[in-house]
Amino acid sequence: MQWTINGQVREAEVDFRTSLLDLLREQFQLSGTKKGCNQGACGACTVLVDGERINACLALAVQYQGRTITTVEGLAENGTLHPVQAAFIEHDGFQCGYCTPGQLCSAVGMIGELERDHPSAVTADLAANGIEWNRDELRERMSGNLCRCGAYNGIADAIAAGLAKELGEELGEELDEELGEEIAR
Amino acid sequence: MNAFDYQQVADSEQAIEQAVRSRRAKYLGGGTNLVDLMRETVERPQALIDVTRLSRDIDETAEGGLIIGAAVTNSALAGDARVRSRYPVLARAILSGASAQIRNMATVGGNLLQRTRCAYFYDVAARCNKREPGAGCDALEGFHRYHAILGTSPSCIATHPSDMAVALAALDARIHLRGPEGERQLAITELHREPGERPDLETELQPEELIVAVELPPLPMAARSNYRKVRDRASYAFALVSVASMVELDGETIQDVRLALGGVGTKPWRALRVEAALRGQPATEATIAAAVDAELTEARPLPGNAFKVELARRTLIAELSRRIADARNGGEA
Questions:
Q1: Is some CB atom of chain B closer than 8 A to the CB atom of A121?
Q2: Could you tell me which residues come within 8 angstroms of residue B110 by beta carbon, excluding any fewer than 6 positions away?
Q3: Strands B66-69 and B58-60, how do they pair?
Q4: Which of A170, B51, B236, B267 is the most exposed place for a label (fewest CB within 10 A)?
Q5: Chain B residue with Cα closest to A58
Q6: Is B21 a member of any domain?
Q7: Using 50, 70 and 90 to split pLDDT, how confident is the model at A154?
Q8: At A37, is the secondary structure helix, strand, or coil?
């Protein structure tokens, strides 16, 4: 079996029962991706497959043969942290750090969804072009990633800042203003 | 997890051939429910036939509806511009279910055939008639908050967990099936069974039969449809009560109405009694309240889920009132 993981073609022969999560951790020693609940409830195992976020614990490795997988180890480019990673440091987006790799991959996947104008459960007008971004959208879209330390405020701030950097200045100003107001309250 | 064979197939014909040839095979979609159940040994297939290479297309039908391939992901369906503008109830139902990660994995066919999240079904140490026919039901004397009040039997009170299927029930979706005997279609409301004495028999699917597509008929009033989900936390939780609704007015008369309920039924629950009591009637608070009661008198609550009768009543009344107000304005939902 063969996968492209963080830009490298990797091969292994594994039992069909092996999850993508166990493949990454046990076969390829990519232990950045965490095993939290192992039943799709916590999001600690979130990775990107062809740019889309999934729960690696519910994925059978065999089903993802030939696909392009990005883990937290593959987010930085040429030694430079992804803007979302840098923002997590700047905004204290963690306490114990166990959920962080999943939060990071999930946030990067979410930014892709925003760029594709994908709606969420709190999007007011589904038929409209362009999503109106706010804190509710961010929290709803990240609800698949739990943090048992409860570092959610820092996580949301970090993702908003990373998002602003990724999606451009205009959006950044809108988000920052709104965040500023919320923090002031 | 027990050992199994795995095979990916290119189309439904290959899938069925493979299923006929295999012993105790299961079709595998996104795996978000099946892999979890296999890990708990609730499901013990000897072979998995990966059907995620089946159609991922969403196409217009000659009648003006849409036909959705069984392997379309939940995310892709909810994000489709035609679904968002013509069937918002479906997009909203899907987006209110699970998490973004799971919606990216889960398929339309798999969503319809997912199993209940009843904790006693999941716990192989508990008694469950669905998992082991005749074993008894520990849910009846257990924690009922997430269990059904409609369509229950002395054998089973498990809810059907899908939000998407509730929207499809309201939309009168047609399920396209293919099996060794050829192709056929079922109305979505005929796909799932009430538990009766055989809660292990959950659908009308025959052995090796496969969902290949879901068809949405054209339905102009669906453009003003909505899905409202009431749950224990704001996101990423199963429904306590959910309502899919749409209304067509002719002046002040309810010309047509579609309603389906989630979180309260042993199957995606089309509220036909409410619909029948409303069709052709004046759009007044009194008619709405009486119509809603016509359905909920059928409820058989237990101590832990008796609150759902009132919650369903209020949610239905609130949603119907909103749909009627929207129809009066003739505008968007």
A1: yes
A2: B29, B30, B31, B32, B33, B34
A3: antiparallel
A4: A170
A5: B32
A6: yes
A7: very high
A8: coil
Among the partner-chain residues A106, A120, A140, the one whose CB lies closest to the CB of B101 is A106
Calculate mean pLDDT across residues B85-114. Answer: 98
Residue located via tokens 């296999």: B38
Query: Which residue of B3, B4, B78 is in closest CB contact with A119?
Result: B78
Using an 8 Å Cβ cutoff, are B173 and B189 in contact? Answer: no
Q: Give the relative orientation of helices A100-115 and A152-167 as an angle to the nearest 10 degrees.
A: 40
CA dihedral B239, B75, B32, A23 (to 10 degrees): -140
Supply B14's token pair: 């290959």
Contacts of A125 in chain B (CB under 8 A): 332
Q: What is the ipTM of this complex?
A: 0.96
pTM of the model: 0.96
One of 3.40.50.720, 1.20.1250.20, 1.10.150.120, 3.40.50.150 is the CATH number of A83-184, namely: 1.10.150.120
Q: Return the SS3 of B174.
A: strand
Amino acid at A161: A
Q: Which amino acid is at A42?
A: C
The pLDDT tens digits for A33-73 are: 999 999 999 999 999 999 999 999 999 999 999 999 999 99
Does residue B333 have a pLDDT over 50?
Answer: no
Residues of B in contact with A39 (CB under 8 A): 36, 39
Residue-wise pLDDT tens digits, B34-74: 999 999 999 999 999 999 999 999 999 999 999 999 999 99
Residue A146 token pair: 């739990």
| DSSP of B282-322 | B--HHHHHHHHHHHHTT----GGGTHHHHHHHHHHHHHHHH
User: How crowded is the C-beta side of A168, counted as CA atoms within 13 Å?
Assistant: 5
Check if A59 contacts B (Cβ < 8 Å). Answer: yes
Give yes or no for residue B4 having a pLDDT over 90. Answer: yes
Under 8 Å between Cβ of A33 and A56: yes
The CATH number of A2-74 is 3.10.20.30
Measure A12 CA to nearest chain B CA, in Å.
16
What local confidence, expressed as pLDDT, does residue A176 receive? 59
